[in-house]
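Database export, one record per block. Field names are fixed; values are copied verbatim from the stored entry.
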Amino acid sequence: MPETDWSIIEEIVRSALIEHSEIDWGMTQRACRLLPFLVEGLEDVSLVHARLLCLFAPLQIPADNPSIRGNWIKPLRSAGIDLPTQAWLWIALQRYRHAPDTSEELAVHDAWALEAVGAPGIAKAFIRGGRMSRDLHEIVQDMRDTLSNSVFLTPAGRRLGVRRIVVTRRFLKDLEEG
């Protein structure tokens, strides 16, 4: 595979996030920065694949739609991502949330699961709630639902996840008592 030009990939993802996602670029960068910690102890890890998957994860591109995938071929090729890696990406995007199979998918699953709890998750819940004109009760319920669905699959994800879940629970408790 040729040298990957991350600046091209980051620019196309950043542009797509602005147009099509509730996730902002800062959240995406934070999730990607967690990857080196989350892959510790995992076998056969490609950080290039993990980073690529992490960048594309919030876009929620329907991987089963060939015309949409086709729109990404040329920009990814210009960034040094060969066709076999692109094929891997579309498969991984379908699996990482609910049935991660590779070390990269496990790490990316946990990176985004960590973004959903703790201070980042609290901020995200209020931003999303504000955009959707939700009241405080609905936002709090969303946070509770996120907590109850939080699963961390890597050893590092479990260690970091426990701390962030505690922060979220304390925040919710303080909110109820306040």
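Remark 1: Residues 116-178 form one domain.
Remark 2: Residues 105 and 176 are 36 Å apart (CA to CA).
End of record.
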